[in-house]
Description:
- The protein is mostly helical.
- Helix content is 73%, strand content 2%.
- It is built from 10 helices and 2 strands, in the order ααααααββαααα.
- Strands 1-2 form a two-stranded antiparallel sheet.
- Receptor for thyrotropin-releasing hormone (TRH). Upon ligand binding, this G-protein-coupled receptor triggers activation of the phosphatidylinositol (IP3)-calcium-protein kinase C (PKC) pathway.
Amino acid sequence: MDESHIGIWTQSHAAVTVADSLEYKTISVFLVLLVCCVGIVGNIMVVLVVVTTRHMRTPTNCYLVSLAIADLTVLVAAGLPNVSDSLTGTWIYGNAGCLGITYLQYLGINVSSCSITAFTVERYIAICHPIRAQTVCTVSRAKRIITGVWIFTCVYCMLWFFLVDIQDGHVQCGYRVKRELYLPIYLIDFAIFYVIPLLLAIVLYGLIARVLYLSPLQSHTDTSATTLRRSYFKIAFALQVTKMLAVVVILFALLWMPYRTLVLINSFVSTPYLDSWFLLFCRTCIYANSAINPVIYNAMSQKFRSAFRGLYSCQRVEGNQRTVPFNSRRPSPRLPTDFYCF
């Protein structure tokens, strides 16, 4: 895309000398490939553990699957084409590739933002309105909301089919409209998929924190020790999940901030800032945002750690069983009943 507008996908003419250097190409390709490979593997694992593990099929995890698929779309449609662009210095996917890849980039980005907003609202209802959550926060409702999010975003992102085209003798995939016309489109996109979700997250997580930290057990002063223990563990688990999701939101805000700030500034100044190394930093932050969520789940959620280990165990046991003779009397390894091999 044209760096004066989006600043993350391809090279600009102003920075062509640096971008063509061997040092830049080596670092760029290495960073993007590393982040994309880690992110693709991690997000595929998130989808698999939720789909194949019964106790992981919760409303919150449904939204995390939607987020993982959106992040996969960003990594495949934005990260991997960027590798070929860095190596060749030209657009090699033609006009259809320009339209399709741009569409998928924005689709993944926007669905990611909507999924984060959806699980933020779900967490707020589950913790601050637990009685209402029994009927509102269900897997079936989460699936309907996710379906609606993807349909809305698929339709919304069709706008990009009319805004991009290959330019400069088929060398570059960029915008066919002037920067003055693109500005209101970007500002609307910026508000809907970045500013509003973050403001909503700040308010809702503030309310959640108030409920969890200020008076978690005051209403159970005259109940039995067993009830108190159950309430304590329930609140502790809710707090763990909420902390994990809050970290996801915070990293989303921080890792997208360099790119969003750059494009906002470049939309108003007469001479856009197009330093190649800073553009590489912006790209890497965006790809890292799509790759880091599985790492967060593994680090902060015992359930996800167990599910990831169970997924690996299923694959390993399935591979070992192929080498055991059919008439062998050795007992097969026992697996946790919550995990399903594939």
